[in-house]
Write a structure and sequence with these properties.
The complex is a heterotrimer of chains A (about 270), B (about 300) and C (about 300). Chain A is mainly alpha-helical. Chain A is built from 6 helices and no strands. Chain A has a single domain, classed as Phosphate transport system protein phou homolog 2, domain 2 (Methane Monooxygenase Hydroxylase, Chain G, domain 1), CATH 1.20.58.220. Helices cover about 30% and strands about 20% of the residues of chain C. Chain C contains 10 helices and 10 strands. The chains are: A mainly alpha (about 270), B mainly alpha (about 300), C alpha/beta (about 300).
């Protein structure tokens, strides 16, 4: 786990980030239950560290995709054990904390959010594995199309950026940052639809078509990673406000026209 | 196997040092000696009472009045019936006066007066009265009720003097007992919706009863043995008398007058009377404890 | 105790006990809470409405020192409201003002209004003794009367209220059943009350309070002196009792408040910081001080 991405990114110990943040605290705040607070902090650091693992996995699998590196893809698949291990660790830690420390209020919301978040992280890991599994299927010299690969590269970059931003949002309890994830996610969705369209028009060559199908699946996996990042953003809002709301409907049914406006669900917050 | 039992010197610090042992022994023995020393006079008194007094006891001793003859050996000198009855009557009346009033004052002090300046003053004067010599009470009643009214001695006047004597003792001991009753008891009774007087009567006093009985007994024992007040108020007579408005005999007075007699038999009667007085107090004690135990529901 | 909801206990009251005997009480709808499976010591109390209590600008003083500094608080009828807060915050003092026990302490006084349904119990015309029969209290340390048997303890409330109580046995039995104690003591009602275990003694005190048929019961840390099993029994009892009385419970134990109370109020330094449904207070409190206290950062 890279030290730079520890929980102290926000500067100083994790603040509660309650709605009246900055309001004067009662004397003696932060002095009670030091041991419990430490455990909670470690749990959060551990969980968010999983996002660092995801970034690593994502970087490697995108690299493997670009250079058709089957061995790198194998490594990614094998390393998913680390992500799963992290999930189990955090899960156990959460159960233990719930049973032994009976957290309430903000602490309870944090623990619940961590439970969701680590699940999303594990899903992200699975998506990376899905991408990695698709790489050898294309063979050694796949008939690539530059524009598809470019689009995928952009999607990959966006997904990576979303993952990093989701971690920053959670660590800093920053709702603004969390809500901004939707903006990036819309872009990923647009690119996803574009790749789909490109695949439709890719031509008659059977090999190329097969490769294009795989690329659609890769795009889908990247899009799912983005969705999971947005979900983590929603958990940030829950921890801070105690209310759970969907930021936007980020999954789109296939066949929607590329130039169609993103779904405007009632829960969507206004554009920034 | 690693060393399971610690080395002897590690456990040595748990041993009691010989110096401590010595000091402990000295202290214990000193206290024991003190206790025995304190018990000696008590034992001696009991011994002498039994030795000298038991001999006078007989049926006629308890059933005949003193005849007043103290000089002729051959005549019967009589028993102490009137003295016993007199003591009982006088002390009973005195208790009937002192106990309700005393308990009442104690209740007021604890439940109502509390720490007001008036209550503090009352407590102060009660303390003063505890130390007043008994003869002063006798004199007081004598001045007020005998000389002042121009009337004669009477049993009830003796009772009054004795009740004055008993009052501060009853008040003090009742107050102590009442203060020992946990406030939580009063609180829960009040919280049930009971008026304060009800709380006192139905909850506080019954709980305080065993302790107060002891205090009252103490007061009675003291009163029963006082001679001086009775000399000026109830005087003495030989006849058994059930009229408290007239002269009345009593054990202390009887003892007082018998002890100085040259006739041995009369002196022996005094010892017998003394023993009787002690036994009476003892019996009273036992009866009262029995009553208290039954009312306590151990 | 009539449950027709038309008058405040005046049917059993001697005329001079409670003024405003003609005062109509707002009719209370019967509680519609679904019957959960009864615990082993089932309560047989008839479902009669408790009363609501409202504090208006309540202040309490010990001499010149103000311990409760102007509190406005509602206790809903037939609900359990918990009062939590650090030691010395004034919660016990406030609760003792509700049944006017606070003024029994020398030098203590209270200002403001305490409305039992529509009646201000601090009104000069109101009889304090009658107030305490309508608002019962259970204390931290179980304190059955030591000289009395179990039966006498439960009946004591009735006897002390100088009512012509008639045959006390059915009332004692009802009260003991209501406190979940009947099965354990029905065979030995003549034994001394002090001979029971701590948890049983506390339930005996609850039965004693129930016997006078109050509309409200105040509990000042009733389980502090008890072991966990006894505590649990009393918590179950509280869940049963609220069908017939309004309950206010002061507790140090936040988990207990969380388990037992419908609403929770948080007090700090004599002031009311926050009050709301227990679920809200323990998952998403509004005031940051509540958050800090509830998560254990101070107190």
């Amino acid at each position: 786990m890279s030290p730079a991405s520890s929980a102290n990114d926000a500067g100083g110990p994790i603040s509660l980030g309650g709605p009246n943040d900055g309001a004067p605290r009662a004397a003696g705040a932060q002095h009670g239950r030091v041991h419990f607070q430490q455990q909670l902090q470690e749990l959060e650091t551990n969980a968010l560290g999983g996002l660092d693992l995801i970034v690593e996995q994502l970087d490697r699998v995108l690299e493997a995709l670009n250079h058709q590196d089957v061995e790198l893809a194998q490594m990614v698949i094998a390393d998913d054990d680390r992500v799963d291990g992290r999930y189990l660790e955090v899960h156990q830690g959460i159960l233990s904390l719930l049973a032994l420390q009976a957290p309430v209020a903000g602490d309870l919301r944090l623990v619940a959010a961590l439970l969701h978040t680590i699940k999303h992280i594990e899903r992200m890991g699975d998506q990376c594995v899905n991408i990695a599994k698709l790489i050898p299927l294309s063979g050694h010299e796949p008939p690539v199309r530059r524009e598809v690969l470019d689009a995928l590269r952009k999607m990959g970059a966006l997904a990576r950026s979303e993952v990093i931003q989701s971690k920053a949002a959670f660590a800093g309890r920053d709702i603004g940052l969390a809500e901004d994830l939707v903006r990036q996610d819309r872009e990923i969705n647009r690119l996803n639809r574009e790749i789909f369209r490109m695949a439709l028009d890719i031509g008659d060559d059977a090999d190329t078509r097969e490769w294009a199908m795989h690329m659609i699946l890769v795009a889908r996996a990247l899009e799912r990673i983005g969705d999971n990042a947005v979900d983590i953003g929603e958990q940030v809002a829950f921890v801070v406000t105690g209310l759970f709301r969907e930021f936007s409907d980020s999954s789109h049914p296939a066949g929607v026209r590329a130039d169609a406006a993103p779904d405007a669900s009632p829960e969507t917050f206004p554009d920034r | 196997m690693s060393a399971q039992s610690p080395a002897p010197d590690q456990l040595a610090r748990f041993n009691v040092s010989p110096a401590r042992r010595r000091k402990d022994k000295i202290a214990r023995n000193t206290i024991l000696a003190g206790t025995l020393l304190a018990l000696i006079p008590l034992a001696l008194i009991v011994y002498y009472l039994l030795l000298k007094g038991l001999g006078s006891w007989s049926l006629s001793f308890f059933t005949t009045d003193p005849t007043g003859n103290t000089f002729f050996k051959s005549s019967s000198i009589g028993g102490i019936k009137s003295a016993i009855l007199g003591t009982v009557e006088i002390v009973a009346l005195a208790s009937a006066i002192a106990v309700p009033i005393g308990v009442g004052v104690a209740v007021w002090l604890v439940e109502y007066g509390k720490s007001s300046w008036f209550a503090q003053m009352v407590r102060f004067f009660v303390d003063v009265l505890t130390g007043v010599p008994s003869i002063v009470f006798g004199l007081f009643i004598y001045i007020v009720l005998v000389v002042g009214t121009g009337s004669s001695f009477a049993g009830y006047k003796g009772s009054l003097a004795l009740s004055l004597l008993m009052l501060p003792v009853v008040i003090r001991s009742a107050e102590v007992i009442l203060m020992l009753i946990p406030g939580a008891l009063r609180e829960s009774a009040l919280a049930l919706g009971a008026p304060r007087w009800r709380v006192i009567f139905s909850v506080v006093l019954p709980t305080a009863l065993p302790g107060m009985v002891t205090g009252v007994l103490l007061a009675i024992a003291r009163a029963a043995g006082e001679t001086a007040p009775l000399l000026f108020t109830a005087a003495a007579t030989n006849k058994t008398n059930f009229n408290l408005g007239q002269f009345m005999n009593s054990l202390p007075v009887q003892i007082y007058s018998d002890v100085t007699s040259p006739t041995t038999a009369v002196v022996n009667r005094a010892w017998g009377a003394a023993l009787t007085l002690v036994v009476m107090i003892l019996l009273l004690n036992l009866i009262a404890r029995l009553i208290a135990r039954r009312s306590r529901l151990a | 105790m009539t449950s027709d909801g038309t008058s405040l206990r005046t049917a059993d009251m001697e005329p001079d006990e409670l003024l405003e005997s003609g005062q109509a009480r707002s009719p209370m709808p019967p509680p519609t809470r679904p019957q959960t499976s009864a615990p082993a010591a089932a309560a047989v109390a008839p479902a009669k409405p408790g009363l609501s209590v409202r504090l208006e600008k309540l202040r309490a003083f010990y001499g010149s020192s103000e311990q409760v500094k102007g509190i406005d608080l509602d206790f809903h009828a037939n609900e359990v409201t918990a009062i939590i807060g650090p030691s010395g915050c004034g919660k016990s003092t406030m609760v003792r003002c509700i049944n006017r026990m606070h003024e029994e302490i020398p030098g203590a006084r209270a200002e403001g209004r305490v409305l039992l349904d529509e009646l201000d119990v601090y009104d000069s015309s109101v009889d304090v003794v009658a107030v305490r029969r309508a608002i019962g209290m259970v204390f931290q340390k179980p304190n059955p009367f030591p000289t009395m048997s179990i039966f006498d303890n439960v009946a004591s409330g009735l006897r002390l209220s100088s009512r012509r109580s008639g045959d006390l046995r059915p009332k004692v039995e009802t009260a003991l059943r209501g406190a979940g104690l009947w099965d354990e003591v029905s065979e030995r009602l003549d034994e001394p009350g002090a001979g029971l275990s701590g948890g049983q003694q506390q339930r005996l005190c609850i039965a004693r309070s129930l016997a006078v048929n109050p509309e409200v019961i105040l509990m000042d840390e009733p389980c502090s002196a008890l072991d966990p099993i006894a505590t649990l029994k009393i918590e179950e009892l509280i869940a049963e009792l609220k069908q017939s009385v309004t309950i206010v419970i002061v507790t140090h134990n936040m988990q207990q408040a969380a388990r037992v109370a419908d609403r929770t109020a948080f007090m700090l330094s004599g002031e009311l910081v926050e009050v709301g449904p227990t679920q809200e207070i323990f998952t998403n409190p509004t005031d940051p001080r509540t958050e800090e206290y509830v998560t254990g950062k101070f107190g």
